[in-house]
């Protein structure tokens, strides 16, 4: 995670706190990180000083909706065409 945050231009914990979990995740996606829900909610939990496994129930469901919206807004940024082709042949997205 540290290497990915550095690649996204977030080199310190102070920088991470300053931009917040959603903006940090946007930057991760823009820098080429593969979308992963656990990494997303880990950022939220870490910035709140909570253990990662503390995210449950309605809170986790709400974060999943936010994650899906973030990924949808950034889909295609690092897409070299394969997702569009798979969508065209009906495989859909599994993430």
List the helices and strands and how they pair.
Blueprint: H1 2-7, H2 13-30, H3 37-47, H4 57-74, H5 82-88
Helix pairs in contact: 2-3, 2-4
Q: What is the name of the CATH architecture?
A: Orthogonal Bundle
Structural Rg: 14 Å
Helix content bin: 55-70%
Compute the number of structural domains.
1
In DSSP terms (H or I, runs of 4 or more residues), the helix count works out at 5
Please give a structural write-up.
By secondary structure, this protein is mostly helical. It has one domain: 5' to 3' exonuclease, C-terminal subdomain (DNA polymerase, domain 1, Orthogonal Bundle). Helix content is 63%, strand content 0%. It is built from five helices and no strands. It has helices spanning 2-7, 13-30, 37-47, 57-74, 82-88. Helix 2 (13-30) packs antiparallel against helix 3 and helix 2 crosses helix 4 (57-74). The longest helix has 18 residues, at 13-30. It is flat. The mean pLDDT is 86.
């Amino acid at each position: 995670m540290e290497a990915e945050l550095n690649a996204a231009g977030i080199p310190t914990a102070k920088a991470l706190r300053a931009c917040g979990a959603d903006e940090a995740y946007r930057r991760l996606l823009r820098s080429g990180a593969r979308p992963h829900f656990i990494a997303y909610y880990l950022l939220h939990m870490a910035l709140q000083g909570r253990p990662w496994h503390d995210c449950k129930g309605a809170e986790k469901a709400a974060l999943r909706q936010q994650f899906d919206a973030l990924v949808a807004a950034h889909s295609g940024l690092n897409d070299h065409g394969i997702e569009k082709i798979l969508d065209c042949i009906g495989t859909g997205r599994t993430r």
